[in-house]
Amino acid sequence: MAVGRFDFFSECLKRSAEFRIILPNEADAAGEESEPMKLLVLLHGYTENSGAWLWNSPIVDVAQRYHLCVVLPTGENSFYLDGEATGRQHAAYVGQELVRYVRKTFGLSCRREDTFIGGLSMGGFGAIHMALQFSDTFAGAMALSSALITYELAAMQPGNGNGVANYEYYRLMFGDPARVRESGADPEKLVLDAIAAGTPLPRFYLACGEQDFLLEPNRRFERFLTEQKVGHVYTEGPGGHDFSYWRRHLEPGVRWLLGLA
Amino acid sequence: MAVGRFDFFSECLKRSAEFRIILPNEADAAGEESEPMKLLVLLHGYTENSGAWLWNSPIVDVAQRYHLCVVLPTGENSFYLDGEATGRQHAAYVGQELVRYVRKTFGLSCRREDTFIGGLSMGGFGAIHMALQFSDTFAGAMALSSALITYELAAMQPGNGNGVANYEYYRLMFGDPARVRESGADPEKLVLDAIAAGTPLPRFYLACGEQDFLLEPNRRFERFLTEQKVGHVYTEGPGGHDFSYWRRHLEPGVRWLLGLA
Amino acid sequence: MAVGRFDFFSECLKRSAEFRIILPNEADAAGEESEPMKLLVLLHGYTENSGAWLWNSPIVDVAQRYHLCVVLPTGENSFYLDGEATGRQHAAYVGQELVRYVRKTFGLSCRREDTFIGGLSMGGFGAIHMALQFSDTFAGAMALSSALITYELAAMQPGNGNGVANYEYYRLMFGDPARVRESGADPEKLVLDAIAAGTPLPRFYLACGEQDFLLEPNRRFERFLTEQKVGHVYTEGPGGHDFSYWRRHLEPGVRWLLGLA
Amino acid sequence: MAVGRFDFFSECLKRSAEFRIILPNEADAAGEESEPMKLLVLLHGYTENSGAWLWNSPIVDVAQRYHLCVVLPTGENSFYLDGEATGRQHAAYVGQELVRYVRKTFGLSCRREDTFIGGLSMGGFGAIHMALQFSDTFAGAMALSSALITYELAAMQPGNGNGVANYEYYRLMFGDPARVRESGADPEKLVLDAIAAGTPLPRFYLACGEQDFLLEPNRRFERFLTEQKVGHVYTEGPGGHDFSYWRRHLEPGVRWLLGLA
Description:
Chain A has 261 residues and is α/β, with parallel strands linked by helices.
């Protein structure tokens, strides 16, 4: 089991960026026959960085048991969006540049059906959003306790905000809140566009704890997926917005992405 | 000689941030009598991160020879400013929170005369600017090939930009370019304010290569410091905007900050 | 919550050594009143390194909840002993030099009652052994599935070995196996010496899974501690020699060391 | 330019080992046509670890300019030898397992003419020795201020030693000193064996400072290579046993290995 930390130059961010990587490839390197590894891009939440999943969940063990390369980028409170004028093109960085970079650098599978994205909270939003935005890259997304915040943003007024950030910050990340539901930042909009265009949609594994403050937007998005007949599973159960919940859902989510559950 | 890399939670950035640190403290830890170590915060340039000085200069050797703790933050193309609404309070982060954190965590000297800041290009600007903004913290700044960009910004028009970034990006970092010279982002403004208020000024070690595209603003700032009778040295010589120049000026700059030259 | 990785020069190893550290000190650094942090040195098992506990257990969360500094050294299959002629004085390194270094570098409590050592398998042996060898430093040890191997070694013949290593390797680490039970490498010998000398003994938290191949030596050592009236608790239960067992026992062990259980 | 640090499981060391890597592959990953990268394994000296070259020389810049992947292992004072019974098979680890691992993991060239090894002091010895031991892997070696210590060891008596280590330590690493000149640890023996067997020899870039305490053994080995008509260059000049000398010789050595000088 190899675990690494990399600094590399990102064209999208116009600067050195860092990621961690879990690479269960010793046997392959020793000469055993093997397929190129599958890839899971795994996203942290607001206030966290690339170490969060590594320190708080059994992701190393899961990666090893399913022979899966896991890449852990740092999202810098960006909601993994291409913020206007911020010089931080996080969606293009994570969903395109980083995937291309690790596929090439580590010889991973380049097939859509072997490429997944997952995350928690802000990273759950990012996983859903990027799986839709780059649906030719990702076959599925695992989204835990997702910060499906565009529902709330649409009604947010200048000067207001919520417990996470203020109106100005959201405006910078998502564009004008008043128009966010019609924008490329809105997951429902991206689903409808894909259906209209007939482009393939990713499959979704969604989970949210019953005590989570984000339960309602998760239920709402699940209803939307059901109405639109988008392939997904959704799990609710006891639990709050913390790693004791996410830890339990990591392996079931990964198994589902891999078609094992 | 100890070299470390830390992830810690920054209140100013509202997220995990990372820094590298050089800590020549083995002898102290082994029980030798010693003073608390002096601190140099050392800033990278645009497109770089906390590894830049470590990989491209003899900073480890310099830290050891002068028994100096060197902290290397990551500035994320922010110009080390508290960008409006960006959620990235980099000046407060580097100039206050990080200094306080490393002083406390590593038992460093808390005296102004033992605390310095340095940098190159964007980091040279940051060193000058933060030494002025937090002049009760820093006794001196070493600024190499500094991106003293507010001269140019003041004349920048919407839609324009330069080779580094566009107008919108600068606006986000510096505030309205048309008013930047009267703002807290302008080094000259901060010097004049300090003189008017009678507050102490840091001392400056400035250097710029004769082939550097930033030569003119460096000369202009030097003339300003001379006119205002602010203590400084300024060096020009053959060299461009690259590490072969910065590498040569690192030790002389550190020696001057420490009062050894 | 800060997590770091350090390279520093060890006099005992005569070379650069690396350790990881978990330091839940942001609040302290921000100026809140605080006591110096307590220290837990946490040891990995055979074949692992300083990352093992970090990647496979909730140690970051435990450190934070109990405001405990956790230091994770790399033991290089040494059994944390001062191997003869190997140039690897791992007991002196971990039990003395590293403790002194992190106490001084990070301003930790220097009191015996605030200093603990723990580990799993080879690291469980190391925790027991170093807590006894440096009983003026450590108030207690948490030893999970401990490789209490001197019982077996005493009967090992040249040319033989076990599934872990061969006779020659053990000889290098432990000295002559035929005399190991009378040597400073034997935990029982150290307990008897301490009782004879009237020096203080550490307290022990011991646990072993009922399916663990090391169950018998753990039971034997527990009977010995009981006979010798050395303060300890011992837990057995379902479980094997793996992190799903160690993960469950981490927090109870830490709570017991801290006098909270 | 990517710089990484990896922990991975080494079969030769029977444990997690760490290395650093410099990988100038952003352009390749972005889709430019490219050949698989060449590899330089670069070895540190006694008392150092995988960070030494990175912190003390412009190796990042050199790697980038020559589009060379540089791998920096940690040798733990082993002289990069397969010490008897030490459980540390460092020659097999660095010269075989690590090369195979990084070639496979990072998609490097597997051709002998693209694979090089270099080092300083103990690492200079290691580079010479492993280039000979694994001459089907390495086309050339760059050896600076090499610790060509078998000349001295052959005369060492039990109980003696030198400023670096004692007799027992050398015995553990090199085998019986009295017979070291006839053993696989002796570079001259390996050259003579290769000539006798008609197997290919690597080419050598050797350099040593005139003030270096290792000057004589370097001169002696150079005379031996000349007598045996082994392809090499040898440079002497002002300089001692320190990075100010090695730094200057890094790029010339790399250029020579690459056939550019």
